[in-house]
Design goal:
Blueprint lengths: L4 H24 L9 E8 L2 E8 L28 E4 L3 E3 L2 E3 L2 E8 L5 E6 L15 E7 L2 E14 L5 E18 L2 H14 L7 H13 L3 H14 L3 H13 L3 H17 L7 H13 L2
Antiparallel strand pairs: 1-2, 2-3, 3-6, 4-5, 4-10, 6-7, 7-8, 9-10
Helix pairs in contact: 2-3, 3-4, 3-5, 4-5, 5-6, 6-7
Amino acid sequence: MNRNVPSMRLATAALVAGLVLAPVAAHAQLVLPRPSPKATVMQQIGITDMTIAYSRPGVKGRAIWGALVPWGQPWRTGANEATTFTTTDEIKVGGKALPAGTYSFFTIPAEGEWTVIFSKQQGQWGAYQYDPQQDAARVMVKPSTAEHLEWMEFSFEDMTPTTANLTLRWEKLKLVVPIEVDVNGLTLAKAREEIGKAKADDWRTPYRAAQFTFDNNVALDEGAKWLDQSLAIEQAYANLGLKARWLAKNGDTKGAIETANKALEANKKAKTPADASSLETLIAEWSGKKQ
């Protein structure tokens, strides 16, 4: 008696099953065009990345507001899967705090003000399972009339160094959600973190952090300490040049000129010298002001 018969039968059954399922697996890879194609828009403000991912329905001659998109009911704000909004840092949306994370972006359209919702619910198809208990932030926004747009579109508009408007356009409607980012606060927090874990010979990280404080006129006392920390590790053209500018800003013209000349000497010894023309121009200006 062949004791291997049961195992042979199992192997044969597995082979047959594989042959039967293979066409199914192959068909599962077929990708067809979506009537409402996917789209993704990313915008950076300061060091914060914000991304909105959605599907773009078309008007296609249909009545949209109060019809295809009913009044007073949660809407996925797009088609297919619920639209998602991701931010890498805490921001403010319509004045409300929104922690870093990925959110389903729902709206409740109305003939007057709309409710804009950032929901902690994940993996939603449509808004059929929307749970208001999972709201992370709610904002009331009144839409305005705009030129006709066939395909629904999100964009980040009216940019400043610290703000932007997340704008929804579709059919003849425009909806704007103001976004604010604490760029200085976030950048300083990140600088402190990176300086805290920098290697002993890393002069560039505290220098770059000091440069940020100087350029943005923020946390200057802390920035001055970071610059001195950088110079204590290594004196290079970059950090010496910044020190010269700092001294000049504080009214020490003599010290600024002396430090700037040290920076020029360091630049001559560098393997790849930088363009020193801007610092040379400053030295000439400071020399003219020297008393």
